[in-house]
Task: inverse folding
């Protein structure tokens, strides 16, 4: 533990220097570097707990980052730095540190959970995680530069709703443009949704994501509802008595047939999401290399609709196939 805390203290120094170099506010940068470490501890604990308990897909990175960004902006406003460009840069960089801390903690806790299940050595896992982070950091910078050069981040080709949301928070608080009644209304709406037992995240996503992104999410929800109904007819409610991964590993219990079917669909959708992200990066490098993809910029409507129908049918077919396969057995 001493070594860990010494390393954290040592890493605080370059964080402080980056803040100071960007803003030329040395005292404020020193204070905010300490706040960044404290916020990182809290964010890592929240994200790590959620990811370790429910899986890395439940890591609340965006929520934690936005919350810390709002608090950080208010602290900087308390220093009297309203309208200061350097202070805005500090707020964004602190949010970046918190986002990375939350993401890595969720990944580590998920890996540790899996390692506990298969009997892995925690020390070796931690070494592998450190190597993975060190290898990924420079590659991610190159990938982001490639995406910006090929698509222009924030354009219609590569919208960045979360980034613009965070930019709006910083500009609103430090620039005095924040419409606080809307913020309060959002908090009240979230509280009401919790009281009536409705998930807050899907509603929030539907509000701030552009229509081109929220529509596929809605379509996926419809496909999931259809498959859930088919599963319920065969095995009862698709939500009842689901066994967590942890209970499955510790108690060595068999997974219910309906749970296997649901996980099959989740694996397919996870593959589609990961594949889409990888193809976006590959195409970005091809565009930088000189290939012209203008023919795909405005695709005809009919082929696009057919692709939508095919993907929706595939998403429904894979889990339904599991049901019929079990019937044949």
Result:
């Amino acid at each position: 533990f001493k070594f860990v805390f010494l390393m954290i203290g040592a890493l605080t120094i370059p964080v402080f220097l980056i803040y100071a170099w960007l803003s030329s506010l040395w005292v404020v940068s020193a204070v905010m570097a300490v706040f960044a470490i404290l916020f990182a501890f809290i964010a890592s604990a929240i994200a790590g707990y959620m990811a370790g308990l429910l899986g890395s897909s439940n890591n609340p990175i965006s929520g934690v980052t936005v919350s810390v960004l709002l608090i950080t902006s208010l602290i900087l406003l308390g220093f009297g730095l309203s309208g200061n460009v350097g202070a805005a840069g500090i707020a964004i960089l602190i949010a970046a540190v918190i986002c990375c801390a939350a993401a890595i903690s969720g990944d580590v806790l998920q890996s540790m959970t899996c390692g506990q299940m298969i009997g892995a050595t925690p020390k070796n896992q931690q070494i592998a995680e450190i190597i993975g982070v060190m290898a990924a950091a420079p590659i991610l910078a190159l990938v982001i530069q490639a995406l910006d050069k090929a698509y222009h981040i924030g354009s219609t080709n590569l919208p960045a709703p979360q980034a613009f949301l965070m930019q709006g928070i910083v500009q609103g608080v430090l620039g005095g443009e924040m419409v606080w009644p809307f913020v309060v209304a959002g908090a009240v709406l979230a509280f009401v949704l919790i009281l009536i037992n409705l998930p807050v995240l899907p509603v929030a996503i539907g509000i701030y994501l552009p229509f081109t992104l929220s529509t596929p999410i809605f379509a996926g929800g419809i496909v999931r509802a259809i498959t859930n109904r088919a599963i319920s007819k065969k095995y009862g409610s698709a939500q009842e008595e689901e066994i967590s991964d942890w209970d499955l590993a510790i108690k060595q219990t068999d997974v219910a047939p309906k749970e296997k079917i649901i996980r099959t669909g989740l694996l397919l959708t996870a593959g589609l999401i990961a594949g889409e992200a990888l193809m976006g990066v590959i195409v970005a490098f091809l565009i930088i290399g000189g290939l012209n993809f203008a023919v795909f910029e405005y695709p005809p409507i009919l082929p696009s609709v057919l692709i939508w129908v095919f993907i929706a049918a595939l998403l429904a077919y894979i889990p339904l196939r599991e049901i019929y396969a079990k019937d044949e057995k």
In short: Residues 248-253 have pLDDT under 50 and may be disordered. Residues 210-328 form one domain. The chain has twelve helices and no strands. The first helix runs from residue 2 to 23.
